[in-house]
């Protein structure tokens, strides 16, 4: 019975140690584990049994969680496969639209170059007209001079 009371006193202590291990930083685990060895003889064995039970419990929880989320994962993969098919169709459409825009853009470039050439010609013509208008008085004087010379004045 004395051994039973020791085990009853040790179990809550082991529970506390396990909670402390799970909740603290790994750098602080050393002193906590040392307390297991310092307490009572056989405390180490009892702690290891408790630790194994805790590990099995966590493993069960992980398995439950995995089972719970497995169907959602499968559904998500199925949805991704559907989206991939739609994405491939969309990519083909975008590529086709891009090709048509490129072709239309080439036509626009050709017409724009024609417009640029026409504007340059217009500007050149305007410049020539301005320069000729500057020369008009001189040409009119030359014409009058030629008339007077032919009339011998």
Automatic annotation (TrEMBL):
Residue ranges constituting the Exocyst complex component EXOC6/Sec15 N-terminal domain according to the UniProt record: 50-152
A matching Pfam family: EXOC6_Sec15_N
Single Gene Ontology BP annotation: intracellular protein transport
Entries under InterPro entries matching the protein: EXOC6/Sec15, EXOC6_Sec15_N
Protein name (database record): Exocyst complex component 6
Organism (species): Homo sapiens (Human)
Classification of source organism: Eukaryota, Metazoa, Chordata, Craniata, Vertebrata
Gene field: EXOC6
């Amino acid at each position: 019975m004395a051994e039973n009371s020791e085990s009853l006193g040790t179990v809550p202590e082991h529970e506390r140690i396990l909670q402390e291990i799970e909740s603290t930083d790994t750098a602080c685990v050393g002193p906590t584990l040392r307390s297991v060895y310092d307490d009572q003889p056989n405390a180490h064995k009892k702690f290891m049994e408790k630790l194994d039970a805790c590990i099995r419990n966590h493993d069960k929880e992980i398995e439950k969680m995995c089972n719970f989320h497995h169907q959602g994962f499968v559904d998500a993969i199925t949805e991704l496969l559907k989206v991939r098919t739609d994405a491939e169709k969309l990519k083909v459409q975008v590529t086709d639209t891009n090709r048509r825009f490129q072709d239309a853009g080439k036509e626009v470039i050709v017409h724009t170059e024609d417009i640029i050439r026409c504007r340059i010609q217009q500007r050149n013509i305007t410049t020539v007209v301005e320069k000729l208008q500057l020369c008009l008085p001189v040409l009119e004087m030359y014409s009058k001079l030629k008339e007077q010379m032919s009339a011998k004045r």
